Amino acid sequence: MSGPGDPSGDAVTSGVGDAVTLGVEEEFQLLDVETGHVVSRAPAVLAALPAATPPEWVQGELTQSQVEIATPVCRSLDELRAHLEHWRRVTSQAAAQAGCVLAASGTPPAGDWREQRATRSQRYLPLHDGMRHLVDEQLIAGCHVHIGVSSPDLRVAVLDRLRAWMPVLIALTANSPLWLGVDTGFASWRTVHWWRWPVSGPPPAFGTAHDYDQRVAALTATGVAPDESKVYWDVRLSARYPTVEVRATDVCRTVDETLMVAGLVRGLARVALREHASGRPAPDPPPELMRAATYLAARDGLTDRLVDPVTGRPIPAREAVSALMDRCRPELDATGDLAVVEPVAGEVLRSGTASQRQREAWARGGPQAVLGVIAAAEARL
Fold first, then answer.
1. Domains of the chain: which residue ranges?
2. Per residue in 284-334, pLDDT tens?
3. Cα–Cα dist 256/345, whole Å
4. How far apart are CA 92 and CA 311, in angstroms?
5. E strands along the chain, which residues?
6. Position 381 pLDDT exceeds 90
7. Are 317 and 300 a contacting pair, CB within 8 Å?
8. Which of 81, 160, 190, 236 has minimal CB crowding within 10 Å?
9. pTM for the full model?
10. Class of the CATH-defined domain 15-379
């Protein structure tokens, strides 16, 4: 079966005709409906789903305090919205039957990691063996966007041109300021928490699919990543589908914000393909600058400065978001995505990120107040 963004079966041509299909995976925390603490109730949530629910659309995760929803291949944001709203609603109802809230939060606001249970399925056993205690604390939830691109070399061309823009997306979608009862001071604690894993964070530039394959093979040969699917860069080539997969952002508070991310990623990918077709070389910011840019985005979100992906200089966050929009605007207009993406990005700039909403709620009333903010977003479905 085709996966998220998989262009197989679609009339997708090479070059600028690619980057048409897209799909999304969203991970969610499960929070107790009374206390707001993270709880390992994924088996109960999955059991409460309607009997006809395809397992590939709603499934468990590495820890039993999370579930994931995934969409099929979509060609428009309207189509993507329908799938996301449906499966969020269905899974939220199942969570309620299990006494918990389906929480779109990159980290659990409250609770104890020692009380959570990890999933010991065949899929995850290599991670238990290789990552050990890291698995026990892997209570982070992201949003993954897949963009269908037919040729491996074109997928690498897209990856190489997307990587510098990941910090701006991280800042725009920051949704994990709290970690098990602590205000971390970060807008996206999930981002820096991920850095403990051996192959994570900003990827290098590759140039060709051969180089990508060789470097991934070298990593897996060391045993640091059990297989290609466990190479967790912020943007990578999917190990299962002919897609470019952006994994940089926290799970988004609302479906509207998820659609904003998906639209921006597709817009960036289409710009990347046009630049590649014209012979324009990919930017190659040094790894230390990429890491610094990602750190600032994770720490401050939109409240301070970000690193300009073009010049490498610090600029106000609002200017960085404007530069992202300007880069994507022609492609967003061409795909009809501008009318969806621009108002949501503008609202985030005006009202603040989800991380700011969580932090304000935490200061006002602790985990129950944060739970109220999260539940209110789900109630809009």
1. 15-379
2. 999 999 999 999 999 999 999 999 999 999 999 999 999 999 999 999 999
3. 10
4. 43
5. 22-32, 58-60, 66-70, 100-103, 142-148, 178-179, 182-183, 200-201, 232-233, 235-237, 243-250, 305-307, 314-316
6. no
7. yes
8. 81
9. 0.94
10. alpha beta
